[in-house]
Design goal:
By secondary structure, the protein is mainly alpha-helical. Helix content is 80%, strand content 0%. The radius of gyration is 19 Å and the shape is globular. Keywords: Membrane, Transmembrane, Transmembrane helix.
């Protein structure tokens, strides 16, 4: 039972770390998969296999190396010099995403709950500190609460779409996009998400004693991510092409279901914002602990305070510049992960 509980907690943490606010809104699925038509079903299957394979390998490598943070793993993958630069760049992007997630929490409070933007920021910061001060175990507990809600929500969406007259669109709609772009999308999506998820997957891998829990947790988590991708694609495809015009595509579907699903959707969105926020802040704090001689709680408070101040002005311009560059580096990172594991297997 104890091992089974660990497997589920690892799986939920894996899912919650990868599935962020962009996923919950439907925008990521639309841009990387649904707009490519029926072939998206195959590219989702490919992405799922990569999430299973690389996710398991990532956690097992962290376990074997007893890596304190993703920097330790990057040094093994890239060598000391390049690994150091990759880690620094990752740290910058992690801070950018942390700030944007915090700003997203404030915006959600302001636009949907009609409370002040500052209230949303402060509530999110306080909750985050209470979780992060307790370490990786608390992060796993939060994901064990948020992810089942998200899975239930996805089942409701699938049932709703099942009765739609266009429910078979996911197997029929076509796309004029270049075939190379269609098949590159799952690699880019998986690489970027795994490169960011290592902020939590690495310390989780080194903290779990049983390798079997990491293996089966990674397998279950990867399958869960794939099923969530497929369910969202299924729902969005039934509303194509009109759904593509909305900034929050999934929100347009939810608005048709009534007040209770709308409230549940807000909880899902905020939960995904929060899990991404604490995951990236935690990974950032672990890396900085290896570089700055400060007490962990003081360092954590400094990160949260800095993210609060930066969130006042927004981070969109810098983030839009970093995403394409980090996407490219993530692809290189994924190739090295695949090459290293193939080399070790020979």
């Amino acid at each position: 039972m104890r091992t089974g509980t660990q497997i589920v907690r690892v799986a939920f943490t894996y899912i919650g770390t990868v599935v962020g606010a962009g996923f919950a809104s439907g925008q990521e699925i639309l841009q990387f998969f649904t707009r490519y038509g029926w072939l998206a079903t195959l590219t989702i299957a490919l992405s799922t296999m990569l999430f299973i394979w690389i996710g398991i390998k990532l956690m097992l490598m962290a376990h074997d190396l007893k890596a304190a943070s993703y920097e330790d793993l990057n040094r093994v993958l890239f060598g000391d010099r390049i690994g150091n630069w990759i880690s620094l760049f990752t740290m910058l992007v992690l801070f950018g995403i942390t700030t944007v997630m915090l700003a997203g929490g404030g915006t959600l409070f302001e636009e949907q709950l009609h409370l002040s933007y500052q209230t949303g920021l402060l509530v999110t910061l306080v909750l985050a500190y209470l979780v992060l001060a307790r370490g990786i175990g608390a992060i796993m507990t939060v994901n064990s609460i948020v992810v089942p809600i998200m899975l239930t929500f996805s089942i409701v969406i699938v049932i709703y779409t099942w009765h739609s007259p266009a429910s078979d669109n996911w197997l029929q709609i076509t796309s004029d996009e270049p075939i190379g772009q269609i098949w590159f999308a799952p690699f880019l999506y998986t690489a970027f998400n795994l490169a960011m998820a290592q902020a939590v997957l690495v310390p989780m891998g080194s903290s779990i004693q049983k390798r079997s829990a990491l293996y089966w947790g990674g397998l279950l988590g990867g399958v869960g991510i794939g099923l969530l991708l497929l369910s969202a694609h299924y729902a969005l495809s039934a509303q194509m092409p009109g759904i593509a015009q909305y900034e929050i595509p999934m929100g347009n579907i939810i608005n048709r279901l009534g007040a209770v699903p709308q409230i549940a959707y807000l909880l899902v969105i905020y939960g995904e914002i929060f899990t991404t926020f604490i995951a990236d802040a935690y990974g950032l704090s672990l890396q900085l602990q290896q570089r700055i001689k400060l007490k962990p709680k003081i360092l954590l408070l400094s990160i949260l305070a800095l993210s609060y101040f930066v969130s006042q002005i927004g981070f969109k311009t810098l983030l839009s510049a970093l995403y394409p560059i980090f996407g490219l580096i993530s692809i290189i990172w994924l190739v090295l992960m695949i090459w290293r594991n193939r080399h070790r297997a020979m």
